[in-house]
Specification:
This protein is 31% helix and 23% strand. The chain is an alpha+beta fold. The chain has three domains: 86 residues, 3-Layer(aba) Sandwich (Rossmann fold), CATH 3.40.50; 125 residues, ATP-grasp fold, B domain (D-amino Acid Aminotransferase, Chain A, domain 1, 2-Layer Sandwich), CATH 3.30.470.20; 70 residues, Dna Ligase, domain 1. The protein has a five-stranded antiparallel beta sheet with strand order 11-10-9-12-13. Helix 2 links the parallel strand 3 and strand 4. It is globular.
């Protein structure tokens, strides 16, 4: 087996969480290379499988990244597969999941072709509480800020933030900030080959307006958790619905014979304590192997099976 783990130039040796993966795959008989996704010298077709990992610089160049994924998928097997990358790399997928009945954090979508004025933006922001502005294409919480609706200065900064993103031809998402993030945190549920693996809690990261970040992502505070059945069932519903939508988009042809190699379902609690979807990460998410007993081995096994051309059926 020859396996490439795709990363970005800022992390040429992978994110620390992924570094043990290479050794785990080598222990299963694979030859493993870590390769920067936009390095023109890489011969992707020489690999039996390319696994996307820490390609965290793709957001400003999404079109280039999607074209790269398409090209790799035409030469060898890519995980997650190209249709997933194209769909999941733009957060408009949340609108599709919402329309399909998945409980999603309520979102106002501001499109650049509307040419909204500052006053028009003001009328579209929430009237009370805190809210979040983020672009529809982003990674690592970059270009994301938290604002207070009843504070004139904060609201003005929110308008500037939105106008900057729209001026760069980027769709803007406006979401009410759910206060459970400050107490229960964001709760990420990781699936490997369609089966639930483990869960972690991410502490609140947004405490003010969008600011420049040194690096490719905002630092996170992580802890392992034991998720309750309600959260896990909502997470399962999200993954199943995503697969159904992708299959329907492909005219009934599954995106691949296996379930998604990996999926991370980020949930928060609404005002009534119910889990709702914040994001579904299937492009290049951290999978937090160190926070789930046996998670690294489960993932390495799933990768090895795909590299050998086998199929892993989901039981979830």
């Amino acid at each position: 087996m020859r396996i490439a783990l795709a990363t970005c130039s800022a992390l040429p040796h992978l994110d620390p969480d992924d570094i043990p993966l290479a050794a785990a795959l080598e222990a299963r008989g694979a030859q493993v290379d870590v390769a920067v996704w936009d390095d023109p010298a890489v011969l992707w077709g020489r690999y039996d499988l390319v696994v996307i990992r820490s390609t965290w610089d793709y957001a400003p160049r999404r079109s280039e990244f999607v074209a790269w994924a398409r090209g790799v998928s035409q030469m060898t097997r890519l995980s997650n597969p190209f249709p997933v990358i194209r769909w999941n790399s733009d957060k408009h997928y949340l609108r599709e999941l919402d329309e399909a009945g998945v409980p999603v954090v309520p979102t106002i979508w501001l499109e650049p072709d509307r040419h909204l004025s500052g006053r028009a933006l003001h009328t579209r922001f929430p009237a009370g509480g805190d809210f979040v502005i983020k672009p529809a294409v982003s990674a690592g919480s970059l270009d994301t800020g938290r604002y207070t609706a009843i504070d004139a200065e904060s609201r003005g900064l929110a308008i500037q933030h939105a106008k900057r993103l729209l001026g760069d031809e980027r769709t803007v998402m406006v979401q009410r900030y759910l206060t459970s993030v400050d107490t229960a945190g964001e709760r990420a549920h990781i699936f490997i080959s369609g089966q639930y693996s483990h869960s972690i809690r991410k502490g609140a990261m947004l405490d003010g307006p969008d600011v420049a970040v040194d690096g490719t992502y905002r630092p996170e505070t992580i802890s392992s958790i034991t998720a309750d059945d309600a959260e896990i069932e909502v997470a399962r519903t999200v993954v199943r619905t995503a697969r159904r939508l992708l299959t329907e988009a492909a005219d009934g042809v599954p995106v691949e014979s296996d379930p998604f190699l990996y999926a991370r379902v980020d949930l928060v609690h609404d005002d009534d304590g119910r889990p709702v979807l914040l994001e579904l990460e299937m492009v290049e998410p951290s999978l937090f192997f160190g926070y789930g007993d046996g998670a690294l081995d489960r993932f390495a096994d799933a990768v090895a099976v795909r590299a050998e051309g086998g199929a892993v059926r989901s039981q979830d």
